[in-house]
Input
Amino acid sequence: MKNIETKLIWSGEMKPRILGAVAMPVFQSSTYEYAEEGTYDDIRYIRLNNTPNHIVLGKRLAEIEGAEAGLVTTSGMAAITTALLTFLKAGDHLLAQNTLYGGSFDFITKTLPEYNISFTFIDGDKPDEWEKYLKPETKVIYMESISNPLIEVTALKEAAAFAKKNKLVSLIDNTFATPINFRPPELGFDISLHSATKYLNGHNDIVAGAVLGSSGNIEKIKHNLNHFGGSMDPHVCFLLQRGLKTLALRVRYQNESALKIARFLESHPAVSKVNYPGLESSPYYNRAKELFSGCGGMISFEVNINPEKIIKNLVIPAYAPSLGGVESLVILPSKTSHVGLTAAEKEKVGIKDNLIRFSVGIESTDDIIDDLNNAMKSL
Output
C-alpha cells in the first residue's frame, strides 16, 4: 500500500481476519493465556499494551506517519511525558521550543526540575542561536509541528538536522498538523507524538495518545509505559481505529475550510491579527508551503472588541477545550489551555487575553463565516 488513504483503512489488520470480521473486534479481556512468552513485557495483558487491539492500532499509526513502530497511550500527555522521561534522566538537559501547549509547558517547567532535569526554551525561528544553549548534558530537543495556540511553523527541518548533528533525540508533537499534512519521521525526527484525542480520532468522544518512531526507541518507551500504567482500553483502541478511517477526508476538508475562514477574519475590522500559516501574509507561509500538504484546521486570532462577548454570541462552535473534532470548538487560551502560565510567561510568548483559538470542524464553511460575522457585527 503506497497511499495514505488506503493505509488508513487497512494497515496493520490481522490476517486471516478473525472469523471473517471486516471491522476489528474489541478484545475486552484484561489477560490472556500464558504462551511461554520470553520476557515480562511480552506477557499478554492490557497494561502491557499488547492486546490485538493495541498491536493493530500501533502498526496502523506507524504506517500512516512513516515510522517503523507505534505505541498508543491513555492520553496525549501520557505520550509526551513517558517519551520525555525515557530519554531524560537526573542531571540531563532539555532544549524545548518556547511556544508550547500549556500542559507540556507545565510539565517541563514544574515537573522535570523535580527530577533534577534542567531545560532551556529556544526560539523556534532562530536556529542559528540554538548551539549556544547546548550543554554537555543536553540530550533532547522538543518541538511542535504547529504550535499551540499561536499556530506557528518553526524551523522544523533545521531542528531535525540540529539533533542529528549534536546527537540529540528529537521529539515533536505532531497533533495539529496530523500525518495527512506532515510526517515528521520522513524529515528525520526520532519520535513523533500525538494527542490522538484530537484529529486522529476526530469525534470528541475519547482521550488517547500515540508515540511513533524507530522500533528500538518505541521499545524503550513501551518498557516505561508498561511501568507507568498509561495503557489504552481496548474499546478506546477500537474507537480510535474507527475514527482514523475518515482522517484524510476530515483533515483535507478542514484545511480548505480553515483557510477560507482565516481569509475572512483577516479582512474583518474587529480582528487585529490572524494566526494561520496558509495565509500569504503569515510569516510562516513559505515554510508551511515547503513542509506541509495543508495547514490544518486550527486558527487563532486577536480581536479589538471583547472576546468573551464574541464567543457568547457564536451559535455553531461549542465554547470548550480540546480540538480537531468534527464539531467546531472555540476557547480563550489565556483562560483554558494556558491558564497555568503566569501573566509574565503569557506575555513573553505572546498569549494575550484577546486571543481566540478556533478549531474548525466539518460544518459548512459558509455557515461558520456567517456565524463569526454575526457574532462580531452585533457588538
